[in-house]
Each structure stands twice: as structure tokens, then as C-alpha cells.
Amino acid sequence: MTTDRTPLLEFDNTTVVLKDKRVLDSISFRIDVGENVAIIGPNGSGKSALIKTITREYYPLAQNGHQPVRILGQDTWNIFDLRSLLGIVSSDLQQTCARYFTGWEMVLSGFFGSVGIWPNHEVTERMESKARAILEFLEISHLADKNMVEMSTGEARRVLIGRALVHGPKALMLDEPMNGLDPHAARRFGNSLRKIAGAGKSIIMVTHHLQDIIPEIGRVIMISDGRLFRDGNKEEVLTEENLSELFRMPVEISRRNGYYHLWG
Description:
By secondary structure, this protein is an alpha/beta fold. The protein is built from nine helices and eleven strands. The strands form three sheets. It has a six-stranded mixed β-sheet with strand order 5-6-7-3-8-9, with helices on both faces. 34% of the residues are buried.
């Protein structure tokens, strides 16, 4: 896939300190538009801090007067602009959205950056058309009239993918996307991600589960103790030696149908 010259996402010697602890320590990497990337590491490695730095929940230390995190070359952005650049779906968002709104209302709410549709929202025909197309694309039209609180974890997460996609973001960023899903739900969710990637949307997946990594992801960034541990081609990075060192335990890996599996 052809990529734009300007990086989609760039961390330049990025450090984040919380309560005298460096949760991110001099992290540097760039992800180009069109890349599909997995960011993996054990619990506490800094993965969530990385996402919260992007969403401005955490602020990195300034580096010689410049912002060490850039999205599409922008040093500064607000959360509303971010929605058109990165569609972010996380477990925290799913908990926030567990309310008495239908799947249809939740997808539409992506246009307003809200949770659900409220009386002051002016929903246009264009918005409705886009929402219908997203529901059909993700094969979740049957969830349009179902309340979020009545959905399974997998159903709700697919609806939130739709909510993130209505803006047509450059990439979809997913935080631990398969958490809480049974094997059948995980497979359906993974198939949805593969369909999104096949349609040309970049996937950035943050996870500690090797089996979450869909075959379309070609690059893996490993993070350990807030630092960059490995970064490169998936086949070269996902070795038993690297994974054993990353998770600090002897592991074996197997590969089937483009998916990797980790055995401890």
C-alpha cells in the first residue's frame, strides 16, 4: 500500500512521568499512513500510557521546546480533531458507553464526540447514510435497535468500531481489543478487523495477547518497562527468544493461518 510522506504517528524521544515514575522512557518510533502495526508488551509495560499520551490524558516532558508526539506532522491537536485522524477504541471507552442507547445511536454519536444522541444534536441525512453503510460493512445492522447494555462484549465492541469509523479516520487504534471475548466472539471481531484492513484502513493494535495480531499486521513494536524493546518486521520480531525476554519466561510459539500463538 502506498503511504503518505508525513508520518501518521511519531514519538520522538518521548518521556512521561507519573508520580516520579517514568511510565514512558525516551520512546521513539514512527508509523506511516497505511501501515498495520501491533504494539505488544506485558502488563505494566507502558502500552496504556502510550495511548493516553496520544489522547492527551497524559502529557510528555517537553524536549527542547517542541512537542515530542506528532500526529500527521501536527505538534498540537485537540480531542475533536483527533477523531478524524485516529479512531480509538478501548475498554475504558466501552465501559463509558454501556448505557441505554441503541447501536444506531451509538454509531451516530461518533459524529458529535458524545456518548449517544442528545436533543441538541442535529443528525443529517449524510450522517445517517454513513452510519448505515458502516453498520452494513461491519455486518452489525442487526444491532441497530439493540441497547448497548443488552449487548455482549463482542457486539458492543464492534458497535464502537463503527462509532470510530464514521469520521473516516486515517487509522483505527485498538487497546487490548480481544479482552473479555470468548473464542467465537474473538474470531468474529478479528474477521471485522481483517475486513477493515483489507479496505485500506490502517490498524494499530495495542495488546499483550499474541493471538490478537491479525495476519494483515506486518510490523511489531515491543515495549518493556516503558522503553522500546524491539521494532521491526513481524516475522523477525516475533521470535521465541525475543518473546521469552519480553515476558520474562520461557515460551514457545506456533503459527497457523497467519496467526501466532504463544505457549508458556
